[in-house]
Amino acid sequence: MKKTVAIDMDNVIADIETNWIKLYEQEYGIRVEKEELLGKPEDFAFPDPAAARSLIYKPGFFRNAPVIEGAIEALKELQEDFEVYIVSAAMEFPNSLPEKYNWLAEHFPFITWRNIIFCGDKSVIGTDFLIDDHLKNLDFHKGMPILFTAGHNINVTKHTRVNNWAEAVNLLREHVGVV
Questions:
Q1: Looking at the predicted structure, is the pLDDT value of residue 179 above 80?
Q2: Are the beta carbons of 123 and 140 closer than 8 angstroms?
């Protein structure tokens, strides 16, 4: 029986930070550097937080995000030894659910519909591992929580941290004795 791993989308496999910066500049003509996001709640890293937050509601916000470097190869590799699930809180924003579904179909077609979970509250997820960038999801996980580095969580010291997909794969394999 394979161990199970739930993997968040935003800022874990989908580069929401880069997309948000691009959209903010397109919409408001102000360039924000990724370094300016470090240690701040996502929308508060922008000069006008309300304007930044409004972008989340625009069509394409979730659909057009680039893939986090190494994510595709890592998830394919993990499927050899783990039951991999994509778990995303996709209910809060109106465009989120269909855009995330279509994004996954394009970039991760090897993840079947049976292994995609869109929800509102991730505390119901009972996998052996959860890789996420938010404490609100990791703090309540019953398995092993793994914090994926993103600008907003750079100062967090809680939970085991991975900075990229190579580290994530190595950590998971070490925990199940596959090297």
A1: no
A2: yes
Catalytic residues: 8, 10
Q: Kindly tell me the sign of the dihedral angle through the C-alpha atoms of 155, 65, 21, 47.
A: negative
**Degrees (nearest 5) of the Cα angle 56, 62, 68?**
120
Query: Which tens digits make up the pLDDT trace of 78-107?
Result: 999 999 999 999 888 889 999 999 999 999
Question: pTM higher than 0.90, yes or no?
Answer: yes
Q: Which residues of 61-76 are buried (b: 16+ CB within 10 A; e: fewer)?
A: bbbebeebebbbebbe
Residue type, 119: C
Residue from 155, 131, 157 nearest 14 by CA: 131
Stretch (H or E) spanning 83:
strand 82-89
Sheet (strand 144-148) strand order: 116-119, 82-89, 3-7, 129-132, 144-148, 160-162
